[in-house]
Amino acid sequence: GAGVSQSPRYKVTKRGQDVALRCDPISGHVSLYWYRQALGQGPEFLTYFNYEAQQDKSGLPNDRFSAERPEGSISTLTIQRTEQRDSAMYRCASSSGLAGESTDTQYFGPGTRLTVL
Amino acid sequence: LAKTTQPISMDSYEGQEVNITCSHNNIATNDYITWYQQFPSQGPRFIIQGYKTKVTNEVASLFIPADRKSSTLSLPRVSLSDTAVYYCLVGAYGGSQGNLIFGKGTKLSVKP
């Protein structure tokens, strides 16, 4: 595709529900990143993948957060038992080179605005 | 990962040159310096990247002194559309980490 796409663009859920956020990277990009961005703050790293392998998940806040990229393309970030503090913009980015081994730039998607009531 | 420090905000007027300086005293040998721009309601967008000396592209210039402990993003003749948040990052490429650490960025406001 022309760029990184994310869906849904907006998600409102009730506390305690599970949500799944989807990221479709630029075709052919091998690395995929997830960030969370609070209002007025810079993006906060969550996790990243090289192909289907999750390389670093040190940024995931707790075990309610998980991510997968089973076929090395589309990725899903899942938040279980959502809490109000999970409300934020969740952004996905992709790059053509292997993360950690290149200086390739990251291309960001439009984000998913998650609101937990 | 090297921590960066940059001004929280800057004001400018149309047609002026804007220089945003970022400090990264603990930059490592294999770190590159990258600047991203973010408009409201959009994801960050790559502007420029460098390792040392000067880099110039169609959008901006990046000046990096010999000690690499700081860098300056230079935007020539800004316009209202350059109003955005600018992030300075250092990345440990070639190593074991692929994540980028964003700070709070510099909010640039360009006035008519």
Secondary-structure element order of chain A, as H and E? Answer: EEEEEEEEEEE
- Count of helical regions of chain B: 0
The end-to-end span of chain B amounts to 38 Å
Please bin the fraction of helical residues of chain B: under 10%
Return the string of H and E elements of chain B: EEEEEEEEE
Provide the spatial order of strands within the biggest beta sheet of chain B.
Answer: 1-9-8-3-4
Helical content band of chain A: under 10%
Largest sheet of chain A: 7 strands, mixed
The assembly state of the depicted protein chains is: heterodimer
Q: Which geometry of chain B do the CA atoms define?
A: globular
* Radius of gyration over C-alpha positions of chain A, nearest whole angstrom: 13 Å
Strand % of chain A is: over 45%
* E-strand count of chain B: 9
Overall shape of chain A: it is globular
Instruction: Write down the Rg of chain B.
Output: 14 Å
The two chains with the largest interface, and their residue counts, are: A-B, 30 and 25 residues
Count of individual beta strands of chain A: 11
Summary keywords:
heterodimer, A: 117 residues, mainly beta, four-stranded antiparallel beta sheet, 0% helix, B: 112 residues, globular
Give a quick precis of the structure.
The complex is a heterodimer of chains A (117) and B (112). Chain A is an all-beta fold.
Polypeptide structure, described:
The complex is a heterodimer of chains A (117) and B (112). Chain A is built from no helices and eleven strands. Chain A has 117 residues and is mainly beta. In chain A, the strands form two sheets. In chain A, strands 2, 4, 5, 6, 9, 10 and 11 form a seven-stranded mixed sheet that branches. A four-stranded antiparallel sheet of chain A has the order 1-3-8-7, with no helix packed on it. In chain A, β5 (44-50) and β6 (53-56) form a beta hairpin. The N and C termini of chain A lie far apart (33 Å). Chain B is an all-beta fold and 112 residues long. Chain B has no helices and nine strands. In chain B, the strands form two sheets. A five-stranded mixed sheet of chain B has the order 1-9-8-3-4, with no helix packed on it. In chain B, strands 2-7-6-5 form a four-stranded antiparallel sheet, with no helix packed on it. In chain B, a hairpin with a 5-residue loop joins β6 (61-64) and β7 (70-75). Chain B is globular, with a radius of gyration of 14 Å. The model of chain B has no long low-confidence stretch (mean pLDDT 89). Classes of the chains: A mainly beta (117), B mainly beta (112).
